[in-house]
Amino acid sequence: MTLPPLTLYLAAPRGFCAGVDRAIKIVEMALEKWGAPVFVRHEIVHNKFVVDGLRDKGAVFVETLDECPDDRPVIFSAHGVPKAVPAAAAKRQMVYVDATCPLVSKVHIEAQRHADNGLQMVMIGHAGHPETVGTMGQLPDGEVLLVETVADVANVTPRDAERLAFVTQTTLSVDDTIDIVTALKQRFPAIIGPHKEDICYATTNRQEAVKAMAPKCDAMLVVGAPNSSNSKRLVEVGTKAGCGYSQLVQRAADIDWRALEGITSMGITAGASAPEVLINEVIDAFKDRYDVTVEMVETAIENVEFKVPRVLRETA
Ligand code: 0JX
Ligand code: SF4
């Protein structure tokens, strides 16, 4: 049987970032050091395959610290936690390891520094997302004003328009965030913030690669989870960059083959929490149905690595 030809564009960078790599290592090393069960507050990263794999090794995933016993270690997810969470763990004399990505912790420190300087904070992020909850939770309840869209900027009511600063979630759309920051600066010319925003290198690079790849593709798939902010942004970037069909899939079984009928070019990328094994599974599914020629669309080379916390390095 002759298979139809398909050019399969593979975005680079794609998949795991340094913060995800570190967070997963933290859970694995904690299991080695302390044995099972090790509790993890929230999905360590937003990927069912990763979470299921760690659960098989003895990790127990919970949403709140209240669900953890005092006498077992607990790990905080890569997305970060409000200050009240480590404080509560310390009060209960629990062993805890913080797997918050260092690039998220940097934003936490920024928010605290602005508050120490007497500035009121605006957070650009998605309501209810654990990273936004964690960053806003660096300051007392009600202190941080949340902005999700350009339209929200009109409703910001600061205590003093001259004493404002902003921080952002690390996994937002770069282009949408530029628009929100521009609107904030127009309304509050004195607002202080980072050079551009707090979107991390991995989010930026994955979006750039999709922008280069999407116009070449009849269709595009992003391997990632429905609760993964950075993965969902890649789907949107693909559509905006001119790809008529841009979809999120968790793994090969989710591919809607009927929707792909007649395509001759396909783009594949993956969010920062999607493991390479699932990307390969998706590529293999195409190889089963098409005569595939793989072409890389590489827009950046990444060499970022983060160390695991010392408490785990000591036993290694
Ligand atoms: O939903 P997010 O993109 O923030 O998280 P995910 O998919 O777990 O990605 C890795 C963790 C990112 C933290 O910034
Ligand atoms: Fe860190 Fe960025 Fe990865 Fe989030 S997406 S874990 S901020 S490197």
Automatic annotation (TrEMBL):
Dimethylallyl diphosphate binds at H46, H79, H129, S228, S229, N230, S273. Pathway: Isoprenoid biosynthesis; dimethylallyl diphosphate biosynthesis; dimethylallyl diphosphate from (2E)-4-hydroxy-3-methylbutenyl diphosphate: step 1/1; Isoprenoid biosynthesis; isopentenyl diphosphate biosynthesis via DXP pathway; isopentenyl diphosphate from 1-deoxy-D-xylulose 5-phosphate: step 6/6. Gene3D superfamilies: 3.40.50.11270, 4-hydroxy-3-methylbut-2-enyl diphosphate reductase, catalytic domain. The active site is at E131. It catalyses: isopentenyl diphosphate + 2 oxidized [2Fe-2S]-[ferredoxin] + H2O = (2E)-4-hydroxy-3-methylbut-2-enyl diphosphate + 2 reduced [2Fe-2S]-[ferredoxin] + 2 H(+); dimethylallyl diphosphate + 2 oxidized [2Fe-2S]-[ferredoxin] + H2O = (2E)-4-hydroxy-3-methylbut-2-enyl diphosphate + 2 reduced [2Fe-2S]-[ferredoxin] + 2 H(+). One of its GO terms (molecular function) is metal ion binding. Binds 1 [4Fe-4S] cluster per subunit. Keywords: 4Fe-4S, Iron, Iron-sulfur, Isoprene biosynthesis, Metal-binding, Oxidoreductase. GO terms for biological process: dimethylallyl diphosphate biosynthetic process; isopentenyl diphosphate biosynthetic process, methylerythritol 4-phosphate pathway; terpenoid biosynthetic process. Pfam families: LYTB. Isopentenyl diphosphate binds at H46, H79, H129, S228, S229, N230, S273. [4Fe-4S] cluster binds at C17, C101, C200. (2E)-4-hydroxy-3-methylbut-2-enyl diphosphate binds at H46, H79, H129, T170, S228, S229, N230, S273. Its EC number is 1.17.7.4. PANTHER family: 4-HYDROXY-3-METHYLBUT-2-ENYL DIPHOSPHATE REDUCTASE. Catalyzes the conversion of 1-hydroxy-2-methyl-2-(E)-butenyl 4-diphosphate (HMBPP) into a mixture of isopentenyl diphosphate (IPP) and dimethylallyl diphosphate (DMAPP). Acts in the terminal step of the DOXP/MEP pathway for isoprenoid precursor biosynthesis. This is 4-hydroxy-3-methylbut-2-enyl diphosphate reductase. The lineage of its organism: Bacteria, Pseudomonadati, Pseudomonadota, Alphaproteobacteria, Rhodobacterales. The gene is ispH.
